[in-house]
Amino acid sequence: MKRVQFEQLSRFTKSILLAYTIAFFAPYAVRAEDSLARQVTHIADNREPVIEHPDQSTQASEKLAALEKKFKKKPNILVFLMDDVGWGDPGCYGGGLASGAPTENIDRLAREGLRLTSCYAQPSCSPTRATIMTGRLPMRHGILRPPMYGEPGGLQGEVTLAQVLSKAGYTTQAVGKWHMGENRESQPQNVGFDDFYGFLGVSDVYTEWRDPYFYPEIVSSPARTKIVENSAFNKCLVRSKKGGELENVEEITIPVCSTLDEKWANYSVDFLKQQAKSDKPFFLYHCTRGCHFDNYPNEKFKGKSPARYPFKDVLVEIDDVLGRLVKTLEETGQLDNTLIFVTSDNGPEMETWPDAGYTPFRGAKGNTWEGGMRVPGIAYWRGVITPGRTSDGLFDLSDIFTTSCSLAGVSNDIPKDRYIDGVDQTSFLISPNGDSNRKFEYYWLMKTLSAVRIGEFKFFRAASTTAADDVQNVGGFSGVAETYSYGKMFNLYLDPKETHSYLIRKLVYNEVFQNALKKHADTFKKYPPKISVSVE
Ligand code: CA
Questions:
Q1: Is residue 487 pLDDT above 70, yes or no?
Q2: Is the separation of the CB atoms in 85 and 347 below 8 Å?
């Protein structure tokens, strides 16, 4: 039979074929559940209610059972957490080469996995990290803002993901930035990690007072330098083993800082190679140094991004680190049994521009506008997560806790004596057309319940910035600057920059949103808030 080229077909035939093609693929491309109209199920007093999807849960369970049969162990979990990388920085979210920093590895995982467009962190570093580690919002785990310069606070009294997975037989490894409190009880080796290699604080405390450009008044003054040197915070790259003491490896000077992401990548690569020989599954919590200010690119990457700015060079480097970890998993035969979740701990930091990332949304790190909390979220698992998926279903980083417990088969070990905000999103991630099991995203501005999102609508009660001051140099931790007694309602599909409140037209949803806020607030009556690190 003679083959007919598409170009040779008549215009009519072409249009019919195209129409069929679009009709065939369109339901998959645009498919999205109307979560606003769905009822939630209250699975327990101490648990965030869920949207149930029995069919996709069955599909997910079958996939996992087949996998366990093949690999004879539970799946590995790799959380790759970037720092201050905005929603708009990776190429797969509109940045990448277009903004001077190609992110080919992040983009590839998004292309071959599930790209989440509504993945939410907390407004800043430590609150998010502790939320991932506990499955609980900051008002419950108590770290409302980042502890700085050795401040105590942290994870004491919490049940961490590392502890639960460790008990389930996982090898638990943390690499990179910790920043959940320097106090002994909050250090990684005391909250469930077998091994830790990284630093305890946040990048800027190691370098800013050493940098003659930003701190000439300290660098040129031995007396002032002495004050910082005597300040009680750990200034070193450290290492620790479960139950042991923290060991200082070397002081983090600016040249050392520029090598940290490389050192941490090497450490994780070695860990992954070791794990290939183990009968136990692993949990690797790899937190990059990049791209928190100030960025000092590794010599290998300095000036190598098209933008040639430090933030961009470092973004290219951490993308390369991700590529190295994935390659190691592939070479050691572990890629098909490892969930890789790539995300960032908050929106871009705009007070340090141009050492800063990008978000197309309003606001930035430190506030509850979308720019502060909506972050990249990519779930990749070769052979398990259907390639090429994109979903705007809600995913909160607290869901990593509950989802990981589910993958490890220990959902029964999720604490029952405290409130858990995370939702088990296993079926959302691994069912071929999975929908999110989360109906509500809550936005907390430290101690204030600022907003709630349901579907495409976001109802706002209080904000940290006003219209006049949230465009440039957005402040990080100013707390509530504006409260709206009447409220504001934004449609994030029509108005992603949250500039046109049209609550008066949407009063039909008022009860839905007021109920959501009230029910969420009520959970704190039975499970009172805990404050460990706050502004007051
Ligand atoms: Ca951060």
A1: yes
A2: no
Percent of the chain with pLDDT over 90: 83
Q: For residue 148, what pLDDT band results from cuts at 50, 70 and 90?
A: confident
Give residue 12 CA to ligand 1 midpoint distance, Å. Answer: 54
pLDDT value at residue 94: 97
Burial track 451-473 (b if 16+ CB lie within 10 A, e otherwise): bbbbbbbbbbbbbbbeeeebeee
Alpha carbon 407 to its chain's center: 18
Higher-pLDDT residue of 152 and 398 is: 398
Tokens of 232: 């009680």
Indicate whether 201 pLDDT > 90: yes
Per-residue pLDDT, 23: 43
Question: What tokens appear for 203 in the block?
Answer: 């990048």
CA–CA separation, 337 vs 272, rounded Å? 12
Instruction: Give the model's pLDDT for residue 8.
Output: 58
Region of 195 (left: φ > 0; alpha: ψ -120 to 50; beta: rest) is beta
Ligand 1 centroid distance, CA of 516 (Å)? 28
Catalytic machinery residues: 125, 179
Q: How far apart are CA 203 and CA 261, in angstroms?
A: 12
Binned at pLDDT 50, 70 and 90, residue 308 comes out as: very high
CB contact at 8 A, 366 and 124: yes
As a whole number of angstroms, the distance between CA 127 and CA 119 comes to 15
User: Which one has a higher pLDDT value, 327 or 28?
Assistant: 327
pLDDT confidence bin for 152, thresholds 50/70/90: confident
Q: Which residues, including other chains, have CB under 8 Å from residue 475's CB and lie 6 or more apart?
A: 351, 366, 367, 464, 465, 469
Q: Tokens representing 423?
A: 């939702």
Q: Which domains does the chain have, with CATH numbers?
A: 78-200+254-444 (3.40.720.10)
The CA 55 to ligand 1 mean position distance, Å, reads 37
SS (H, E, C) 494-530: CCCCCCCCCHHHCHHHHHHHHHHHHHHHHHHHHCCCC
> pTM for this one?
0.93
What are the two backbone dihedrals, phi and then psi, of residue 110, each rounded to the nearest 5 degrees? -65, -40
Between helix 260-275 and helix 310-331 the angle, nearest 10°, is 10
| Residues 520, 521, 523: CA angle, nearest 5 degrees | 70
3-state secondary structure of 119: strand
SS3 402: helix
Distance 86 CA to ligand 1 centre (A): 10
pLDDT of residue 463: 81
Measured in Å, residue 85 CA sits from the centre of ligand 1 at 8
Question: Is-contact 201 179, C-beta < 8 A?
Answer: yes
CA distance 100 to 306: 5
